[in-house]
Amino acid sequence: TDILDIQRIRNDFPVLHQQINGRPLVYLDNAATTQKPRPVLNALIHYYEGYNANIHRGIHHLAEKATAAFEASRKSIQQFLNAAHPEEIIFTYGTTDGINLVAQSFGRRFLKEGDEIIISTLEHHSNIVPWQMLCEEKGCILKVIPVDDAGDLILEEYEQLLSERTKFVSVVHVSNALGTINPVQAIIEKAHAVGAVVLIDGAQATSHIDIDVQALDVDFYVLSAHKLYGPTGMGVLYGKKALLEAMPPYRGGGEMIKEVTFEKTTYNDLPYKFEAGTPNIADVIAVKVALEYLETLGKANVAAHETDLLRYATEQLSEIEGLRIIGQAKEKISVVSFVMDGIHHQDIGVILDQQGIAVRTGHHCTQPLMRRFGLTGTTRASFSVYNTREEIDRLVQGLHRVRKMML
Ligand code: PMP
Fold it and tell me: Keywords, A to Z (predicted)?
């Protein structure tokens, strides 16, 4: 019943076609990073071979061409997120960079001693540590929304945490470790009701879920291109214009200034105020191609295929003796995290790798979440548009072999 021709799609991804340890590669580590389709790779080569130049300042032909492509990417991200203005799109180095930007720029300027910041148990370290650093510096207080045994946030507890002291709420859209899709619309509304500003970490959401920052009324939304069939080292911070305008610059340097004298410097307008230095020009340009690729497939079609894989994998893995899936949230993306009785996750990862199967093992940069479930880590299989049921069968066979070798 698949609308997509998965075999044809697989042909767009050169990296998938190789043998690892004598077996065809089964790549099930898509939550860490997705593979890149040929059009994205071609865009990178095309830029470096055809019009590599520094942007904005140059008046020669190549500089103008590179600048136009760079700014066209900003427009395409604007459309992708349905942002009201292109200058609300700030190019960053990734999700981590975007969160640090907001914590340092907004946090330092507008938060003060005793103010409360709410995050959740599901957060990636990149949405924990920047806030802890800010709390240490400013004397703010960090509060954490708990999760239930299924891996869903406990919203009643969230409401208990909210008060007029709450100044900032920063929550993940989709958990990289368990796959939980959070009810971000409700989280944002409740935060706004007490006057708090909200950031949503969209790193894992953007390739699976339609994002409309205006419908969400979210204040900040961050993402990484490399989880979205795009290049590494490139991400986006969306911010409401009024907030970004009120915020001081994060990094100082070239490009982010209007005029510099030794006495005083004035800052550039949005979005350049937050884009100091030469950016990842090639990667920014290639992101537009990644978004076009995803659009051609159709996000709904991709999501339907991934949901099918999630259902199939959940079914098949549940039948393996001694295997327990961690995280059975009401709404999930295509991530299955699991543990096996008497077998360390690292051993599982090594034995699967010997069979050409790539999964992630460990704490997934979510140590507090692992601790909540009494674990040091899990094995995680995460599926993307180019994965197949046959690959899940390979995973299941691989896990039977793990049991045979380890028990
Ligand atoms: N948040 C989540 C939910 C993630 O999955 C990741 C990447 N694993 C990050 C933040 C950090 O993204 P990046 O490493 O691209 O900055």
Answer: Pyridoxal phosphate, Transferase
User: How far is the C-alpha of 202 from the C-alpha of 11, rounded, in Å?
Assistant: 28
Give distance in angstroms: CA of 106 to centre of ligand 1. 20
What phi-psi label fits residue 22: left (phi over 0), alpha (psi between -120 and 50 degrees) or beta?
left
* Ligand 1 pocket, Cβ-based, cut-off 6 angstroms: 94-96, 124, 126-127, 172, 176, 201, 203-204, 224, 365
Amino acid 244: pLDDT:
98
Indicate the DSSP class of residue 269: P
Q: Work out the angle at residue 57's Cα, subtended by the Cα atoms of residues 53 and 59, and round it to the nearest 5 degrees.
A: 75
Instruction: Read off the pLDDT of residues 129-146 as tens digits, 9 standing for 90 and up.
Output: 999 999 999 999 999 999
Rg (CA), the chain: 22
Q: What are phi and psi of 104, to 5 degrees?
A: -75, -45
Quote the CA–CA distance of 159 and 166 in Å, as a whole number: 11
What does the pLDDT average to over 278-305? 97
Query: Which amino acid appears at position 334 of this protein?
Result: S
As to burial, measured by CB atoms within 10 angstroms (0-12 exposed, 13-18 middle, 19+ buried), residue 215 is exposed
Cα–ligand 1 centroid distance for 31 (angstroms): 9
pTM of the model: 0.98
Confidence category of residue 57, pLDDT binned at 50, 70, 90:
confident
Amino acid 2: pLDDT: 77
CA pair distance 76, 349, nearest whole angstrom:
38
Q: What is the mean pLDDT of the chain?
A: 97
135 is catalytic: no
* CA 387/CA 394 separation, integer angstroms: 11
Query: Residue 57 has which token pair?
Result: 């300042």
Out of 178, 184, 285, 365, the active site residue is: 365
- Give the list of residues 6+ apart from residue 160 with CB closer than 8 angstroms, or none: none
Query: Which pairs from 98-102 meet CB under 8 Å and 24+ separation?
Result: 98/220, 98/222, 98/223, 98/235, 98/236, 98/237, 99/126, 99/127, 99/130, 99/170, 99/199, 99/201, 99/222, 100/130, 100/250, 101/237, 101/250, 101/274, 102/170, 102/199, 102/220, 102/222, 102/237, 102/239
Estimate to the nearest angstrom the gap between the alpha carbon of 371 and the chain centroid.
22
Q: Whose CA is nearest to atom 4 of ligand 1?
A: 203
